[in-house]
Amino acid sequence: MQNSLLKHINLPEDLRQLKAEDLPQVAKELREFIINVVATKEGHLGASLGVIELTIALHYSFNTPEDLLIWDVGHQAYGHKILTGRKDRFETNRQLNGISGFPKRSESDYDTFGVGHSSTSISAALGMAIASQLKGENKHHIAVIGDASIASGMAFEGLNHAGVTDANLLVILNDNAIGIDPSVGALKQYLTNVKKGTQKQDNIFEALNFNYSGPIDGHDLSLLISELERLKTVKGPKFLHVITTKGKGLKQAEADQVKYHAPGKFDAKTGELIAKSSTIEPPKYQDVFGETIVELARNNEKIIGITPAMPTGSSLKYMMEVFPNRAFDVGIAEQHAVTLAAGMATRGLIPFCNIYSTFLQRAYDQIIHDVALQNLPVVFCLDRAGLVGEDGATHHGVFDLAYLNCVPNLVIFAPRDAIALRNIMYTVQLGIDFPIAIRYPRGRGHLLEWKLPYKTIKIGKGECLKKGKDVAILSIGTMAKHVEDAITDLDASHYDMQFVKPLDETLLHEIFNTHKTIVTIEDGTIVGGFGSTILAFANTHRYKHHIEVLGIEDKFIEHGSVLQLQQLQQLDSTSIKKKVEQLLSILNNS
Ligand SMILES: Cc1ncc(C[n+]2csc(CCOP(=O)(O)OP(=O)(O)O)c2C)c(N)n1
Ligand SMILES: CC(=O)[C@@H](O)[C@H](O)COP(=O)(O)O
Ligand SMILES: [Mg+2]
Description:
7-stranded mixed sheet; 24 helices; binds thiamine diphosphate; binds 1-deoxy-D-xylulose-5-phosphate; binds magnesium ion
């Protein structure tokens, strides 16, 4: 009977009542459950399907949540969520006011550590294991980490430390030979050799003092359970190498693992993707970046592309296909990506280092110490800037303007549309003697016609988009479109400042001298961002205007569609319109 076992399982204690021979049936039902929900509600798919047996075995063998289980990244934790009290709410996954797409401490005691960014699990589990030792608690601590995530520097730092402790730590490597895109690097080659068993080589994890076992078939429930039971009796740091297939159980997801990482809507029965509408849409900013860099690289051999593990998401894959020797996927290694770019820049190359805004947070010291301090002409393309939607608080790119604003030498530009993105990419490859961050959002812009002849953009210059009276709206980046829609029939001025740094001070003086009220608008945090800079400018020059700073409030923004979140933050065109109308009426009545 369909769902005959899963319907009785709400918590791992229910699972533990079952006989081991019933668990493959639970695995089958859990897979179907996930497929059915993700097919219509969307989300990450392949990673969770790949760890169904591992998830069941872990909750069956260990006494969660007393034993502490941490999922690295957490995009593979859907099975975990369903087995730990969230089956009935799983339909709300990633939606506004629904459960999070990632483990989250405030959501469940079984979510022992909040995740979303990769490669944190080993350090966090080790921290918990050391805490248990100090508190005299007898617990198991388990980190489950993927083959792409374990190649990140941070994971190595955790392994390196753990190997000289006697902490009760079990690291499980879920090796499916792929991240979002195929895994890269020498460690991937090493893991492939281990799997094949063809090449005699020292075991890296044993060399780091871990008690290593595996590789074992991660879809064999009885093997997994017997190995986990054995490992419970082994003292100190342990490492279990498990081989799985990403997308396991859905033919298309196994066959096209990149697409089915997060496939969007699909037919749950056939696995086929639901075709998007055939009307011509404006391009994604990612494709504007990807196509433009290829075009520019054809004429400028100094151009290099770098991505830390997001070739498909960033569209750098286009350049990797055309210029494989000049475009690099360095794996989940944001710090390395930035300093690699810095090294290239010292040798006269023009590196375009494309990193999601949220993941660039990992490389903050590298931006300051390796790039900006040496004033190296690295071009940072910050993808997924602003609110990203359903990935939520861990992934919104809302801090970049604030965290970059205070870095000397760094120029910060936000294109208002696809043409501006293209033109700034063209401009910087002509030659710059400073680093620049170009930030743009996830998804599509609004222009169908964007491949126009290139124009250079004057560094540090803003533009007047509409001349009105009394109220001046200063926008940065793609918020310009919302402003444009908001004020079509209002008598307000609109300026696209383009650069947060350097500020166009000449234009600002002109604006302050010809308007009574100033509104700034950005899709980033209002603390320390663009609006703060305008406030500081006004203060420095003793302007006494009323200044409204619109942006993301000083709190973490949860998940939901971008439009829903913009509405909550009053950054959608309707809210902006209301705000400007209010300001105009105050002025009219004064
Ligand atoms: C610091 C950071 N960089 C990039 C990402 C984007 N990202 C999410 S999952 C993923 C691939 C993870 O691959 P792996 O660890 O092998 O897990 P799998 O998806 O195969 O289960 C990447 C690159 C991230 N979450 N965090
Ligand atoms: C889990 C994770 O970090 C990625 O899979 C992320 O969700 C990708 O985001 P995009 O869909 O915006 O590429
Ligand atoms: Mg993997």
